[in-house]
Amino acid sequence: MRTRRKAAIAALVLTAGVVAGCTSATEAPAAVATATDGVTHARNDRVPEGAEWTQHYFPTADGVELHADVLLPEDLPEGAKVPLIVSTSAYFGHSGQLAVEGFAHTGPSDRFGDLVREGGLLERGYGLVMVDSRGYGGSTGCLEPLGGPGDRADVRAAIDWAAAQPFSTGSVGMYGKSQDAVTALVGSNLNHPALKGVVAMEPIWDVQQNMRSGGVPRSTTTSVANVYNSLATLPQMPDDDPRYLANAGYDGPTGPHPECAVLNTAAYMDPTEATWGPRDLAAQAAGSTTPLFVTQGFLEWNTEPEAMAEFLDNHQGPERAWLGQWDHKRGGERTADGRLEMGREGWYDEVFAFYDQHLRGVAPTVAYPNVAIEDSTGAWRAQDTWPVVDRTASLEVGGGGYTDDGVLGSSYLTRSEPLAAPARVTGTPRMALTAQGHGTVMVRLHDVAPDGTAVLMNQQVSQLRPGRTDLELKATDWTLAAGHSLAVEVGTVQPGIPFSNDWLPTHTQEAVTVQAARLDLALDDPADDTAQPGTPAPWLETYRVANTSQPPLGPPTFTLS
Questions:
Q1: Residues of the chain with pLDDT under 70
Q2: Which of 44, 171, 253, 300 could form a disulfide with 83 if both were Cys (CB 3.0 to 4.6 A apart)?
Q3: Distance between CA 224 and CA 7 in Å, rounded?
Q4: 258, 119 in Cβ contact below 8 A?
Q5: Which residues face 374 on adjacent strands?
Q6: ∠493-497-498 over CA atoms, to 5°?
Q7: pLDDT, tens digit, for every residue of 304-353?
Q8: CA–CA gap between residue 439 and residue 449 (Å, rounded)
């Protein structure tokens, strides 16, 4: 969803005139679906085989018109009903997901083609409803920052509409990855009676914290607005129906509302609680009972595992999860050489067992664990919930000084005595600092081997003022082997940390003195693990290679018993 440090962001600076090719004089034009004229693969090759595509429009409570592409089983008897899987997204435009893709003609998005083809969604007797979020594709309205009132209105309207259709059983699920996993969490938080199950892969759990860690802005406060402004103004296909094209031009530079992009950019730049408080999805999860199935990579560089534990703790419904050491991947995704990016087989079977249970009332035939989790060793285990905490540790890790200048190495380190037995750091580590000086602070945790080689295992930043500063690090699941030490690094927000450091320079150049620092950890005993099938996520080795260093270490100053 976010494209920080990625060359792909340049592809979103769209050039005029990149549109689909024309149909030859002898080739019949591809059919364009309407609400009453369903189109199959035989009439339009962008429709998946075995599907019938229709297009629909419906209003939200605040007056926005939403567009939806619907895929139903081609052989569905007249009058038959199926449960519907809904996704509301910025990525369903007919001309392409992130840029104009050069299609020969219009057709439904293939964003979740894997769910249709490899997952067998249609053969399993489900339908897919792809709703353009406001401001994108064939929907009107001004785009807004993620997870706010606009998304709530759109998701509620999409669920209402899907549940009421004559081809719907009235039971609705949601599915999404990244941006549309955010809207899936929005749906979960609505506690809508028709929404029976939500699958959210690699979401953002608290948009404010994701954009501004402890008040320190990320580059995404500017880049995300630019990316989504580009998506909202993508030219659509010339053969789309006139209503779709008119809606697609709602917030374009020559459309009736060119101010939409300006307002969206200004909102992302606004640091106030008025903008971001309503986007704290973790807090809004309190009391939700909607069944939820999530994935989260602990080594994410894009939608980081911030506030995940808070969300899952607040959410009160049934929970399932795949958690592990991957980056921004979806379940079932493979590397170029065929390895599973998450290292675990059976994603689609498990997803549809979840949907069958909660949308159809069909009990699973396989006893799936509530949580399947891969820790930093690459080993998989099963848990009833996450995190499992055997004990907690409150460690006085010591003070020191640094200059808030953004220079690599402007920090101090302390470390523990080597561990006598393995210990897993899980959940959300927390740091409390008492300091003098103004500036920023970066806290990094390292797994230090006996030879002094250290792997960065967690990090977080915050604004810092005289007195006490509290910060939550990212959710983690990292095992320290026997003989290894935990090192704590405290200093300025530093550059050069692969895959993760994109905080904007906000340095004061002041000297900072940390008088006391306390690290609170949740610990789990690996000896209690219940092993599960699975291989290490390929990303784990890439991450280790890029984040291994030989930092200057003094003698141990604290004990992690």
A1: 1-27, 496-500
A2: 171
A3: 14
A4: no
A5: 380
A6: 150
A7: 999 999 999 999 999 999 999 999 999 999 999 999 999 999 999 999 99
A8: 32
